[in-house]
Design a protein that fits this description.
Layout: E1 3-7, E2 11-17, E3 32-38, H1 40-50, E4 54-62, H2 65-76, E5 80-87, E6 93-99, E7 105-110, E8 132-136, H3 140-153, E9 157-161, H4 169-174, E10 177-181, H5 182-189, H6 194-205, E11 208-212, E12 218-222, E13 225-229, H7 242-255, H8 260-275, H9 287-297
Parallel strand pairs: 1-4, 1-8, 2-6, 4-5, 8-9, 9-10, 10-11
Antiparallel strand pairs: 2-3, 6-7, 11-12, 12-13
Helix pairs in contact: 1-7, 5-6, 7-8
C-alpha cells in the first residue's frame, strides 16, 4: 500500500445548499445541509484513504468537541491520526459554507491563532518509508518540516499552494512540486495572466509548477515547457473540497510512480466525480469508481 504523509489544516464544515449565495442581511432556508470534515490536508488525506492509499495526517486541533469531531471523522475514513496533535490552548477550526445551485461555494472559516503553529515535534515523527509527502500553506511551519523530510527521503514533496502563499516560503523553496489554485498563483506572483504567472513561478522556484482552474482544467510547466490537461465535463453539484481531493489524488499517483501527466488525469477524474455530489469531501469516490470513470472517458 502506498503511504502518503499529509501535513496541514483539518476543520469541520457546516454546509448549506441554497439557490443563490447570500447578498443581504436576511434569513434564508437551505435545500439540503451536511456537517462534514474539511480542510485542505484533511480532505486530501481522506481522499488518499478512499483511493486505496495509506494516509498519515499531521495536523493541529484543540482539545474541544470540534476537535473530537475532526479526528473521529478522519479515523472513520481510515486515516492514521497518530500525528494529529490535540492542544490544550486554542480552539479547533470550523467553517460555515454555502453552496449555490451551480455548485459554487462561499466559505467563512474560523481559525484560532492561539492554536500553536509549532512543528518541531513533527521533525522526529515522519516515517522513513513514505512514498510522497503533501502539505498545505495553512500550516507553514509544518509544511517546511514536511518538505525538508521529502527532500531527505528522496520522495515527491508536493505543496498545495493556497493564498496567502508566501507565508509558506520556506516550504515552497524545498518542494519538488507546487500545485497552485488559480487564486494562489495570482497571490504568489502578483500577475493576473495565469500562464505568465506560472512561468514566473517556475523561474522563481525551479520546481515543477502547475495550477488547477476548475472546469478549465490544469496547466503546468516542467523544464521550461508548458502543458494543459482539460477537466472532465460533468454536471456540477458541489465544488467544495474538489481542489483538496485533487491534491490528495495527485500525491497518491506520484507516490505510486506515475508521471505528472498521468497523475493529473487521475486527479482530474477524482475531483470531477466529487463535484457531482453534495457534501464536500463526503462525495469523494473510491478507486474502482475512478477506474470505471476513466475507462468510459477513454
Amino acid at each position: 500500500m502506498t503511504r502518503i504523509l499529509i501535513a496541514g489544516v483539518a476543520v469541520v464544515d457546516i454546509v448549506m445548499s441554497i439557490d443563490e449565495l447570500p447578498r443581504k442581511a436576511e434569513k434564508f432556508r437551505a435545500r439540503d445541509a451536511a456537517i462534514v470534515g474539511g480542510g485542505c490536508a484533511a480532505n486530501a488525506a481522506a481522499a488518499v484513504a478512499r483511493l486505496g492509499g495509506e494516509a498519515l495526517l499531521a495536523a493541529r486541533v484543540g482539545r474541544d468537541p470540534i476537535g473530537e469531531m475532526i479526528v473521529a471523522g478522519l479515523e472513520a475514513e481510515g486515516v492514521d491520526c497518530a500525528r494529529v496533535r490535540r492542544l490544550e490552548e486554542g480552539r479547533s477550526s470550523f467553517s460555515s459554507v454555502y453552496v449555490d445551485a451551480t455548485g459554487e461555494r462561499q466559505i467563512v472559516n474560523f481559525r484560532d491563532m492561539q492554536l500553536s503553529f509549532d512543528a518541531g515535534w513533527l521533525e522526529n515523527d515522519i516515517p522513513g518509508d513514505v512514498d510522497a509527502i503533501l502539505a498545505d500553506t495553512r500550516w507553514p511551519q509544518g509544511a517546511a518540516v514536511a518538505m525538508q523530510a521529502a527532500r531527505r527521503l528522496g520522495v515527491p514533496g508536493i505543496m498545495d499552494a493556497e493564498a496567502p502563499v508566501r507565508e509558506a516560503g520556506e516550504a515552497l523553496a524545498r518542494a519538488s512540486h507546487i500545485a497552485f489554485s488559480a487564486q494562489g498563483l495570482r497571490d504568489f506572483t502578483a500577475i493576473d495572466d495565469l500562464d505568465e504567472a506560472l512561468e514566473a513561478a517556475e523561474r522563481e522556484t525551479g520546481a515543477w509548477v502547475g495550477y488547477t482552474n476548475g472546469a478549465k482544467g490544469v496547466s503546468f510547466r516542467n523544464g521550461g515547457e508548458a502543458h494543459r490537461i482539460p477537466a472532465f465535463k460533468v454536471d456540477i453539484v458541489d465544488t467544495l473540497g474538489a481542489g483538496d481531493v485533487w491534491h490528495g489524488a495527485f500525491a497518491l499517483a506520484l507516490g505510486e510512480g506515475e508521471t505528472e501527466m498521468a497523475a493529473i488525469r487521475f486527479a482530474n477524474a477524482v475531483a470531477a466525480i466529487k463535484c457531482t455530489r453534495f457534501g464536500g469531501r463526503a462525495g469523494t469516490p473510491g478507486r474502482d469508481e475512478v477506474a470505471e470513470f476513466l475507462r468510459k472517458a477513454a
